[in-house]
TrEMBL record, chains A, B:
Residues 384-511 form the Thiamine pyrophosphate enzyme TPP-binding domain. Coiled coil: none annotated. This is acetolactate synthase. Keywords: Amino-acid biosynthesis, Branched-chain amino acid biosynthesis, FAD, Flavoprotein, Thiamine pyrophosphate.
Length: 514, 514
């Protein structure tokens, strides 16, 4: 018998959860104290809950298993919601431990009191308020299992302070997560028939289908049938580069996506859904499926999507191999750094097995082409569109994979959301190289202002999209948070600083003035 | 006839709302474009929604009328929730305009799609999703009126993108907010009888009762009857200093509060509720009302609490004057800056009519005594306990009162939450002096770890409360966001830098190493 906090942490560790991204408060103090009694749990302090939840997202995408977060009551959870939204859209397994007031204290409506469940429900995951010491171990084990079901999800366990501190609790054994269901052979056969028909067809890949195995199977199908392949616009984790079959991502702009999907008669979705526009635009359709095209679902996220693709490939492409991208990298550019050429520096110098946390937004439009033949790497995209993901996800990825170089490609506007993630990088000495794409603007909104047809030439409107008054000195900010930083204004400087940052241990930031 | 965005902004302005703290996205582009057509609306860009909502809170506390916020869909709102929680607890009038996807786009569950209403409901305010151009003007006017009812509240208006961009809308005339109800003469007479009885009695003041008029009336009652007076622990806006009757705040720690309330037989609450502890502690009561004491409510927040106090004073203390604090300030201390002596520098140098945004937390324990006789000032406290309020509230207060010096007393741990507020101070050239109380720790949690009885001597536990690894260089961070900054390690340096910052226009930050 022990107290609730120790039972909870012990159960987490026994269930394979060994990292907790934490921003605790008074109601979590017994949890914090219990960390010293469970050696296998690592507490990683974050200065803001949005960093903690984003880090848990990044960790889960790379580790393939959940990290925990430790959040302080409703307001602490609220600060973490935006990155939980991204985790939800990425189907990342995450286990939130949300401290609450003691059960008997709730009724007093003390200043920090709020209803926590409407917020946890908002993440569309698994939610439970543990009811007592006898239940906390079981609830914890079930939370971890729920997070790891197929698809992965955000599991939130609410822990009242008195249940945390009261004795009489016991740790519980791990609960096996529900595995993905086996592919449906009849569906596979029907879709094979569609592909054999030879009509213009596209495979749209998402979720676990965007790893090496899924992409290879899809490419074999494409090689055998002439079908096109595309990856969803914002994949949770996309493996790409030399040795991996190259598959374009569906464009963010409806105009791009329309061109990519033009003429197809069958759209086969695998681990994703039929594509829609990110936003509505006056007079334009939201549905990106071409008129008349038929949508087929090979496998949803509750299914083993890689197995489904492999079985389909074995039917259609026996003996046909996937066509990996050759190792071809751009020449190192020279001269003034621009929004066009910075990507070639990254493409030329990207190290083996890099993880790219990509929140470069508009600045990253040319990145995929520049890195198509770079050494094999994983890209973690902005799945839910809630900006402020990039730096926290890089933190979590680096904790999950300390042997891999993590590169955060970070737009300036969104960097300001969760900038204190830099401090956690410094504190944990994480090998993260942040390339801060600094164009002094919410550039995407300048584009969108025109695209939505707003009459947006006015000075007040443009001022609200302008980040140059004052210019942010991200190198100074990074140094202030303990991360060594430099400024690059030429390609040569970016190349030299990028190579130095990769070679030296610990975090670095390069303020790339594009 | 105009589009929804223009109708909305015009109605805001016609209803007295002339400032909008904004962090827009694509779905808000027509609102942004419309700003140029309504000259009396000022858009203030914030780099994070928590800055926008905190600024609206600070604005409302000082201006006595709402500012608007402009937030991007559910995730944007979620980032602003913590400071809306503080605004809710402060009863500050705030009008959120929350952009949403076009009505016809919702069903596609695009990446940024989420249920907005569970989040707006969480603020316990007024919520409406406008249904079309014919309604947007009326809905806006009613939102402003709802925000300004008694007590003030957070009003949230959800604006779908197509309603924003479609023509066919019209602005509406302002709606009168429901005024506070008149005090109940019978209640006043009953409470007068209690006070005449001479038993130990305390008046606990909150809400509008903590301004000069309310404090003066309460002090007259105290002078006539011997009753004690106290202000709630975290007042939204407390007027104090020379010329104002001095009233202690109820202590944050239960031990303090218990001593302040010891022996009372009657507790009369005015514009607040019976006090409870901030958190639960093992084996200690949550209710701070002494056993056997009777709680009387003179006036709740729906009532004109100042009128109630004045009527009670006229009954009990005719001809008796309030006893204002004399203008006595501390001597300027010298030598090394410490957690004890920095408050005397502030007390000695506080200018006339200052506004103190106080999130100094543990570092500010001695502040009230040090500033008790400083020139009259307003203190804006951390009403809801959701940290990260201090800098944003200072932004809003400075926008509301450009002729008054605003001083942000800011603890280090909570500063990191919404640090980009500094950028908005620089952008708007706001006259805010931030004194950053830098003790490299979540000092309050060190205290709380012991107070909750957690066995907290372990290295991992203490590490999670330690902000010294690495130390944050807040001067560098501030300069990075465009705010001139200095470091003070002695009382003399703090005094000199504080005087310089007050004398020079625009924002300044002093990293006070205590």
């Amino acid at each position: 018998m022990t107290n609730g906090a120790r039972a909870l942490i012990t159960t987490l560790v026994d269930s394979g959860v060994q990292v907790c991204f934490a921003n605790p408060g008074t109601s979590e103090m017994h949890f914090v104290a219990a960390l010293d009694e469970v050696p296998d749990m690592r507490g990683v302090l974050c200065l803001f809950e949005g960093v903690a939840t984003g880090a848990a997202d990044g960790y889960g995408r790379i580790a393939g298993k959940p990290a925990a977060t430790l959040l302080h009551l409703g307001p602490g959870l609220s600060n973490g919601l935006a990155n939980l939204h991204n985790a939800r859209r990425a189907h990342t397994p995450v286990v939130n431990v949300i401290g609450d007031h003691a059960t008997y204290h709730k009724k007093y409506d003390a200043p920090l009191e709020s209803d926590i469940e409407p917020l946890t429900d908002w993440t569309h995951g698994w939610v439970r308020r543990t009811g007592g010491g006898a239940e906390v171990g079981r609830d914890t084990a079930e939370a971890v299992a729920a997070a790891q079901a197929s698809p992965g999800r955000v599991a939130s366990l609410i822990l009242p302070a008195d249940i945390s501190w009261d004795d009489g609790a016991e740790a519980a054994a791990a609960v096996e997560p529900v595995p993905p269901s086996a592919p449906d052979a009849q569906v596979i056969e029907e879709i094979a028939e569609v592909l054999r028909g030879g009509a213009p067809t596209c495979l749209l890949l998402g979720g676990p289908a965007t790893g090496l195995a899924g992409l290879s199977a899809a490419d074999r199908i494409a090689a055998a049938t002439g079908a096109r392949t595309l990856v969803e616009t914002f994949p949770a984790r996309l493996t790409r580069g030399a040795g991996v079959p190259p598959v374009e991502r569906l464009g963010y702009l409806a105009e791009q996506a329309g061109a990519q999907l033009a003429g197809i008669e069958h759209l086969i979705v695998v681990g994703t859904r039929a594509p829609v526009t990110f936003f509505a635009y006056p007079g334009k359709p939201s549905d990106l499926v071409p008129d008349g095209a038929v949508v087929h679902t090979l496998a949803g996220l509750e299914t083993d999507v890689v197995a489904a693709l492999e079985q389909l490939a074995d039917l259609l492409a026996p003996g046909i191999a996937a066509r990996p991208a050759p190792p071809v990298v751009p020449e190192l550019p020279t001269g003034e750094l621009t929004a066009q050429n910075w990507v070639d520096v990254i493409g030329a110098l990207l190290p083996e097995r890099a993880i790219l946390s990509d929140e470069s937004n508009t600045s990253g439009v040319l990145l995929p082409a520049a890195t198509a033949g770079s050494p094999c790497h994983d890209v973690l995209a902005l799945t839910g569109g809630a900006i402020g993901q990039g730096l926290p996800v890089a933190v979590g990825a680096a904790v999950a994979a300390p042997d891999r170089p993590v590169i955060a490609l970070q737009a300036d506007g969104s960097a300001a959301y969760t900038i204190s993630a830099l401090w956690t990088m410094a504190r944990e000495n994480l090998d993260v190289t942040t390339v801060l794409l600094n164009n002094n603007a919410y550039a995407i909104l300048r584009l969108e202002l025109a695209r939505v047809g707003a009459d947006g030439g006015g000075p007040k409107a443009n001022d609200l999209l302008d980040l140059s008054r004052p210019e942010m000195d991200f190198a100074a900010i990074a140094e202030g948070f303990g991360v060594p930083a430099t400024v690059a204004t030429t390609c040569e400087e970016l190349a030299e600083q990028f190579q130095h940052a990769l070679a030296a241990p610990g975090p670095h930031l390069i303020d790339a003035r594009i």
